[in-house]
Each structure stands twice: as C-alpha cells, then as structure tokens.
Design brief:
By secondary structure, the protein is of the alpha/beta class. The chain folds into two domains: 258 residues, 3-Layer(aba) Sandwich (Aldehyde Dehydrogenase, Chain A, domain 1), CATH 3.40.605.10; 180 residues, Aldehyde Dehydrogenase, Chain A, domain 2 (3-Layer(aba) Sandwich), CATH 3.40.309. It is 42% helix and 17% strand. The strands form five sheets. Strands 14-15-16-13-12-17-18 form a seven-stranded mixed β-sheet, sandwiched between helices. Strands 9-8-7-10-11-19 form a six-stranded mixed β-sheet, with helices on both faces. Strands 1-5-4 form a three-stranded mixed β-sheet, with helices on one face. Helix 4 runs antiparallel to helix 6 and helix 5 crosses helix 6. It is globular and about 65 Å long.
C-alpha cells in the first residue's frame, strides 16, 4: 500500500511538467541510482589489424580518461604511419574475397554482429558512458540500440544490392578509410562500418582519441562473429593517425565525421586525387517555434534539441528562433524546464546532462560563452551544484542574441542555447538560413502547409517537424554547405559506398 506521500509524489511525476513542478522547481531530490554493470574494459589495448591484436610499432600508448572524474581508464596504442600501412595492407588482402562473398553471406555476418552487440548492450552502454561522459540513459536507450539497428538494417540490404538503383547493381569501391568523432563513438562507428561492409568494402577505421574504448571492445564482437581477418581494421590515435588514414594510397574512399576545420584540411589534402570522399561536419541548427505551435511540446523539443548528449551533437538545435508574440512565454517555460535538468554523474540513471567530453571541449565552451556575455547577450544558468572533480558545464540559455553574435554563428558543441526572435515566416527562413552550416533544422507549428513550405525553404539536410533529433537507419543524414556532403543511412548512404554498374 503506497503511503499518501508516495502516492502524491507518483501522481506529480506522472502528471508531466505541469503545475506541481513549476511550484517545486528543482526541489525534487532523487536518490542516487548508479548503473553498476561491469563495462569489462581492459587496462591496455593494442591495435586491431588483420583480425589480431597488434602492438604499435613505436610501442607508444596514450591514456583514455573518464571525463566524469578525470581518472584514467585504459592505455591505448598510438598508431603511426607504419601501423596504418599494415592495416591497409591487411584490408587490401581481405578485400577481393570479401567482395566476392555472396551478399546473403555478408548479411549473416552483419546480423551476427548486430545480435552480439545486443547481447552485450548493457556492458557497452556502461563502457560508452565511462569513456565519454554521456548519461547512461542515453548510451543505454539511444547509442547502443541505434548502433545495433544500423547493422540489422544494412544486413537487410547486403543481398539486395541489385534493387538499390533500377537496372543497376552496386559494386564495392575497395578499401575505405574512416575517421570518426567522440560524441557518439560506437554509433558513428556503426554508421561507417555497416554500409561499407554491406556493399563489400574493407575498412581501416580510427575512433576519436578520447573515446576509443567501445571501438576496441567492438573488435571482440568482430572476432566472435568470425568476420574474416582484415575486413575491419581498427587503429587508434589522434589527428596525426587520422591524417595517415586519410592519406593512404590504398584508400579508394575516405569517410570523415568531425569538425568543419579538419574537414576543410582533408578536402585540401585530397584535391586532385581520385579518392571518393564523404564529409559529415559541424552545424548550427535553427529550431523554429511558431506562435501556433503546441508550446509545452515545443519546450520539450527545444530541451532535447540542445541538451541531449551535453549538446555535443552536430545537428543540435543550438539556435532557437521564436516568434516574437510567444517569445516571452516560451523563454519563461524554458527557464522553468531547465531548472529541472539533473546535471552530474553520467553513470546515474537519473542524470540528464553528464560530463563534457574533454577538458579541451570544456575550455572551448567556456571561451564561447564568455564571448556571448562580452558581446551583450543575456545569460541564464540554473543554480545547480556541479561535481568537484570532472568536466561539467551548466545548461545555459542566452537571450537577447543577435545574428552577428559569435554564439549565434559559431558551433559551441556544448549545452548552450542562443535565443533569437522573428515576426514573419520569411524572416524565420532568412534567419535560419543565415549560417555557413546546413545540417538540420526544426519547425514547430500546427499548420501542415507551413511545415512543407519550411522544409522546402530551409537549406538543411534534415528538417524535423514538431520533433527533434529523430534518427533511423533508413533515413539519410548529411549536410549542405560547410556541414559537408554525402549521406549516411538509407539507400543514399549505400550509394556513397559503391560504384553503380
Ligand atoms: P575533430 O575534427 O577535431 O576530430 C574528429 C576526428 O578527426 C577525430 O577522430 C580526430 O582524431 C580526427 N582528426 C583530427 N585532426 C585530423 C586530421 N588533420 N586529419 C584526419 N583526422 C583528424 O572534431 P572533434 O572536435 O573531435 O569533434 C567535434 C566536431 O565534429 C564538431 O564540430 C561536430 O559538429 C562534428 N561532428 C559532426 C557530425 C556529423 O555527422 N556531421 C557528427 C559528430 C560530430
Ligand atoms: Mn575517454
């Protein structure tokens, strides 16, 4: 029998973000709810080349730390050009027979990988949170299941490549070099590997230096799945290792996800070669709220759009455009909602905002927030107590932002939202498109016709309507302008890993 008090609390929780919470503010106290499963992380990791664990030639290693408490988790091999070369040679040797393997056989490997990942989902979720700082509820409910979903989806394509484009079939490009970022470590690996393998390519992939652990654990899954040696090779290290992966002469294609700055470097370095390229780069997405939108729903979408994964999301809705007539109301609802966010230990199941991925990212966020204050935007941060150890940043709201402010133009890649206003549909479109980026956008309105108009006018790879940050392996994702080119996911994503013949 629940006590009257417990019953009252339960009712309040189930009533959503309505009156009681408005009154109680952040007075809700949650007991700690730590995730305790063993992430099974080894103390040291070597490179995964030709199906075997291989020491780096230089024998050098670097540390991966837990950004939630700055403690060292593991030592990871630092791959140099010689190691990257070995990885490419292994991929080159494996490639012909992998390409000749019938699609339905390749599909079996992909299904097996997906299932093995599901079997170990909890362990991988804990490892992802430990190494990268994202809330456990996100690695558990988003990163790992989505990674498995990408392998399932592409397993389905592997024996149907003659149906992707009418009258033609897909042939592999050969060996592809892939470099991925730290914000969705295992998920970005899945986005890269699954379509490459389904279409018969072999891979050399480099995870980001702060988050290599789930990629290395994934090598165990490849071994358990019996994937032929050399089909996937995993090399670890920072930018220099990345450049070696991009530059190798055996790479028929390079696929990069990361910053626009590095993307530009890569484009320059590959100009004049016949390597194919896809680049998934930064963003500064507009999340546009019209006065006729369901505002409470929109506030949830705004919060999800910018505070999901600490705002370390290339398609984050970091520029909020609100119609002037409802701006005051939306901002006040938003402040109330932001006060409810639980910031702290990412391993706690109640945490909404975990640790910033690295000290250098925290420094970048602080620098840009300082510029916002200096340029005259108005800052709001809730009073929350941050852990003493580790890299944390309060959820932050800037109002009174103009289009020329750095916080409206530059990607912050942190939990910082800049609010601008507009009066007309045309003004909303013009402001939303007034950016060098073009990865995503959100539109909140009651009118279907307006959604269609906005989707047509916004120069963004993805336009979400009355929702935000929705992903599916069958839905292509990618950018316009300085957000990059090429698509990942869906039919379009397969075409970027194959020749049509
Ligand atoms: P980054 O570009 O510095 O690093 C990304 C990856 O590239 C890492 O693995 C890194 O080691 C490697 N790298 C660094 N220098 C390199 C070089 N010269 N040659 C080859 N590889 C190199 O970016 P970051 O700070 O790690 O990641 C954050 C950025 O990534 C943000 O700007 C974000 O928008 C972008 N991002 C984009 C997407 C997308 O899908 N478009 C997804 C996630 C992140
Ligand atoms: Mn780490």
């Amino acid at each position: 029998m629940p006590t009257p008090k417990a019953k009252k609390q339960k009712n309040m929780r189930s009533s959503g973000r309505t009156a009681p919470e408005l009154i109680f503010g952040n007075l809700w106290n949650f007991d700690p709810a730590p995730e305790t499963a063993d992430p099974k992380v080894k103390a040291t990791y070597d490179l995964f080349i030709d199906g075997k664990w291989t020491q780096a030639k230089s024998k050098k290693r670097f540390d991966s730390i837990n950004p939630a408490n700055e403690k060292k988790i593991a030592e990871i091999a630092l791959a140099g050009p010689l190691d990257v070369n070995l990885a490419y040679l292994a991929a080159g040797r494996a490639q012909k027979s992998w390409a000749r393997t019938p699609g339905k056989e390749r599909a079996k490997y992909l299904y097996r990988i997906a299932r093995l990942l599901q079997d170990r989902a909890r362990e991988f979720a804990v490892a992802e949170t430990l190494d990268g700082g994202k809330p456990i509820k996100e690695s558990r409910d988003f990163d790992i299941p989505m990674a498995a979903a990408h392998f399932f989806y592409h397993a389905g394509w592997a024996d149907k490549l003659q149906y992707v484009a009418a009258g033609k079939t897909l042939e592999p490009l050969g060996v592809v070099g892939q470099v991925i970022p730290w914000n969705f470590p295992l998920l970005m690996l899945a986005w890269k590997l699954a379509p490459a393998l389904a279409t018969g390519n072999c891979v050399v992939i480099k995870p980001a230096e702060t988050t290599s652990i789930t990629a290395l654990k994934f090598a165990e899954i490849l071994q358990d799945a019996g994937l032929p040696p050399g089909v996937v090779n995993i090399v670890t290290g920072a930018g220099e290792t990345g450049s070696a992966v991009i530059a190798h002469s055996l790479a028929a294609k390079v696929a990069f996800t990361g910053s626009t700055e590095v993307g530009k470097k890569i484009m320059r370095s590959l100009a004049g070669t016949d390597k194919k390229m896809t680049l998934e780069l930064g963003g500064k997405a507009a999340n546009i709220i019209f006065e006729d939108a369901s505002l409470d729903q929109a506030v949830e979408g705004i919060v999800n759009g910018i505070f999901f994964n600490q705002g370390h999301v290339c398609c984050a809705g970091s520029r909020l455009l609100v119609q002037e007539s409802v701006a005051e109301l939306v901002i006040s609802k938003l402040r109330t909602r932001i006060r409810m966010l639980k910031v702290g230990d990412p391993m706690d199941k109640n945490t909404d905002i975990g640790a910033i991925n690295s000290l250098s990212q925290l420094t970048k966020i602080k620098r840009l927030v300082a510029s916002g204050i200096k340029e005259g935007a108005k800052l709001y941060q809730p009073e929350c107590v941050l852990p003493k150890q580790g890299y944390y940043f309060r959820p932050t709201l800037f109002t009174g932002v103009t289009q020329s402010h750095r916080v409206a133009r530059e990607e912050i890649f942190g939990p910082v939202l800049s609010v601008l206003t507009f009066r007309t549909v045309d003004e909303a479109i013009e402001k939303a498109n007034n950016t060098v980026y073009g990865l995503s956008a959100g539109v909140w309105t009651d009118k279907g016709a307006r959604i269609l108009k906005m989707a047509a006018e916004l120069k963004a790879g993805v336009v979400w309507a009355n929702t935000f940050n929705k992903f599916d392996p069958s839905s292509p994702f990618g950018g316009y302008k300085e957000s990059g080119f090429g698509r990942e996911g869906g039919r379009q994503g397969l075409l970027d890993y194959a020749n049509l013949v």
